[in-house]
Amino acid sequence: MMATLKETISAAKASADYSSQLSSSIAASSEETSTNIDSQSQQLEQLATAMSEMSSTIQDIAGNSERTSSTTEQSKDFAAQGSRSMGYTLTNISGISEDISSTHELMEALKQGVNDISSVVNVIHEVSEQTNLLALNAAIEAARLANKVAASQWLPMRFVIWQVVLKSPLLRYKPLSTS
User: Fold this and answer.
1) How far apart are CA 42 and CA 126, in angstroms?
2) What does the alpha-carbon distance between residue 80 and residue 136 come to, in Å, rounded to a whole number?
3) Does the pLDDT value for residue 90 go beyond 50?
4) Where in the numbering of this chain does the Methyl-accepting transducer domain appear (predicted)?
5) Which of 45, 93, 111, 166 has the fewest CB atoms within 10 Å, measured from its CB?
6) HEC profile for the chain?
């Protein structure tokens, strides 16, 4: 009976140690992911700024193109050809400007998504820290119950094991066989 108790305590300690190691690994991964997301967020902000400046420049170019178009129309020799060329150029520049505006909006949405992911990573990090504490608490609780079992020989071993399993939200064991 004592050998089974020792095996159960050993299994509970090993499970708690494994949970602690797994939580530490998750925390390290979360911190690395958070660092990478911060770096990407900064790069996205720089890209969004560059896109805004490009959009402003293209709008200035579009305004200049309109003024050039009105000047070109005054010339009789190239009036028809110049008008068609400028109309085509303005259409393309407006399309590009709209595309850049759409891209800027998408970049803002992407930036928000990165911020949301960063929040999720922070939550995962906090959960992993709490998991470490729960694993430690489970190990302490198992040791405490093992001492109680050793002190009171009349309590059946299976009942004690089920008490440990049912009280700990991290431990999910299959019922022990009666062998």
Assistant:
1) 24
2) 83
3) yes
4) 15-144
5) 166
6) CHHHHHHHHHHHHHHHHHHHHHHHHHHHHHHHHHHHHHHHHHHHHHHHHHHHHHHHHHHHHHHHHHHHHHHHHCCCCCHHHHHHHHHHHHHHHHHHHHHHHHHHHHHHHHHHHHHHHHHHHHHHHHHHHHHHHHHHHHHHHHHHHHHHHHHCCCCCHHHHHHHHHHHCCCCCCCCCCCC
